[in-house]
Amino acid sequence: MPPKAKAAGKGRAPVKRKLAEEFPPGEVLTDTGKKSWKLGVPVGQGGFGLIYLADENSAKSVGADARYVIKVEPSENGPLFSELKFYMRAAKPDLIQSWMRSRKLKHLGVPRYWGSGLHERGGKRYRFMVIDRLGTDLQKKFEECGKRFPRKLVLQLSLRLLDILEYVHDHEYVHADIKASNLMLSHSDPNQVYLVDYGLAYRYSPDGVPKEYKEDPKRCHDGTIEFTSIDAHKGASACRRSDLEILCYCMVQWLCGRLPWEDKLQDPVYVRDSKIKCQENISQFMTKCFSSQDKPDEIQKFMEEVKSLGYQDKPPYEKLRSILQAGLKTIKAKNDDKLEFTPVNGAASPRAQKAAKRRKAEDEESETDGSPMKKKRVTKKKEVNGVKKTRPKKADPKSRLVEMGTQTSPGLAKRSRGRPKKTST
């Protein structure tokens, strides 16, 4: 596996990669197994690659109901190469199906790998990979719910992630970048969730031999700054406990809306030290995040269990599941097959938040005007020659075309290393 590209930061030069050329619908790509795939319209893009709807090659054009997507990037670029290694080793359909049968699982949220290869066009070479088509991401759902998920939903998601992580770990990899924007709902079933973007996936145990702990100052703070593990902050390669530690931070954020260190994400050392303090006194950390009546005891127990793991230890997945299942019993809920994304009591929806800001602005305007009965409205649009002008929105490099049913370039977009990663909406 080639070394992962470094993001631009203090003392680092930005990595120069070639942009992907857009292919016309109908372009046919042939994978290494000699199977042909036809491209549809592009439905997402990252910094250096594109994602297209796709289907098996036939006389028909690729429609909006396509079952697959193809990720394409110039062959010189690295993100897709790194991700492809994971998919080829661990995400073949027969491997996933066999695991599900052995564990008696109805579902496992790992996208299936259907093929890959190289494609030439106009004298240029491109690498491509075919995987399942997915739907919207959980970051959008999180924001729609006022940046708080119900406790039942958090426990359900965490139980499913434990299944996914146990599978990934058992196939010698760790994910290293778990977060809401890397969790996607199924395109056909909104009650199924998938963990995507294996661009930072690391083979922690090649041929069954776990790697030893070793800090590398050049790799400090790899991952997404608010969630990445203490191991990563110190420059050590990710391990199984790293994935579970990241999951802990995700659970806390999903429940209470905000992690204590989110006010200083530009300072990775501060974030690292805050996480170290959190691990030193998990009870105090939970008190800081939750009121006494809302504090979820199962999350504290889960974190304590993860804290006790050594760098090379195999996590007690079944014990961790039982902790989360006990949490469901506490709130008299069951781990059913339905994921309900409903706003938590007291969590304002984005629309309500905007309305509150507008009312506040109007109240402030009326106070300065000196007229309590008649409020002046704050003008949000300027008029030029009688035409209303609005300020254009900045383009999001990780935008998702959710209605087309796929994420924006998992594994192709730039990743945060030592600096906060902007959230997509």
Uncertain regions spanning at least 5 consecutive residues:
1-14, 366-390, 392-425
Number of helices: 11
End-to-end gap:
32 Å
Radius of gyration: 23 Å
Shape: globular
Please report which band the strand proportion falls in: under 5%, 5-15%, 15-25%, 25-35%, 35-45% or over 45%: 5-15%
Q: Helices and strands: which structural class?
A: alpha+beta
Number of E-type strands: 11
User: Largest sheet, described in full?
Assistant: 6 strands, antiparallel
Order of the strands making up the biggest sheet: 1-2-3-4-6-5
Helical content band:
25-40%
Listing every helix as H and every strand as E from the N terminus to the C terminus, the arrangement reads EEEEHHEEEHHEEHHHHHHHEE
What is the compact description of this entry?
The chain has 425 residues and is α+β, with helices and mostly antiparallel strands. It has helices at 79-90, 93-103, 138-144, 151-170, 230-233, 240-256, 268-280, 282-289, 297-307, 317-330, 350-369, and strands at residues 28-30, 36-45, 50-56, 68-74, 113-121, 124-132, 134-137, 183-186, 193-195, 382-384, 387-389.
